[in-house]
Amino acid sequence: xxxxxxxxxxLVCAASKGLGQGCAEALAAxxxxxxxxxxxxAALAAAAAGIRAAHGVTVTEVAADITTGxxxxxxxxxxxxxxxxxxxxxxxxxGMWTDWExxxxxxxxxxxxxxxxxxxxxxxxxMMARGWGRVVNITSQSVKAPIPVLGLSNAARAGxxxxxxxxxxxxxxxxxxxxxxxxxxxATDRADALDRTVAEAEGIxxxxxxxxxxxxxxxxxxxxxxxxxxxxxxxxxxxxxxxxGQNILLxxxxxxATL
Length: 259
Prior knowledge:
The chain is an alpha/beta fold and 259 residues long.
């Protein structure tokens, strides 16, 4: 399918690996020029070089912490006018409700709620003025089914979801859509970190922890960054203009819900 977005320009955050890189690859395959952001200089440069070589699109890389004001300013200055925004940031650490203090919640909100909101506030006006735009926020399946040990993430991502629900309806008349992708477990560094925590706590191997969790997913496997990226690229396509303010699960059926 021709997604109809060749020649568009996208800003993709946390794009040096994992789900962010999967989204960047899929957009580049559709002919989209990219501004890629991540904190790690070497990993970002390697991802950018690989995408340039594979797809022949223009790739600008900006190594910065997108969750800080200074980092966002640098990224936005380099990005200029973009047609597509993909927000993404690593989730806060797991724990128990007794572990977290106000500072922990503020950090989680800054990274996983207020950062994507700030990026949208900066870029939505230009999209609206041009009459076309796409925003995809990478959130979590925990928006649909909270994960007890990820209370910080549950709270921050639920807040972002509420913000998007209202904002998406306000910008839709201008040809701009905002939607959220809710990943379940994908084969990424984040999954490795969570599995490692379980393995250490229960005295089992990392492979055993992975196998145990995969067995709880109806698809009986972890997702891949490539299939996640394909879903992101479709939400950014011309064909997805009637999808507004939705929360789309990519979890292999792990969330057991009718709606």
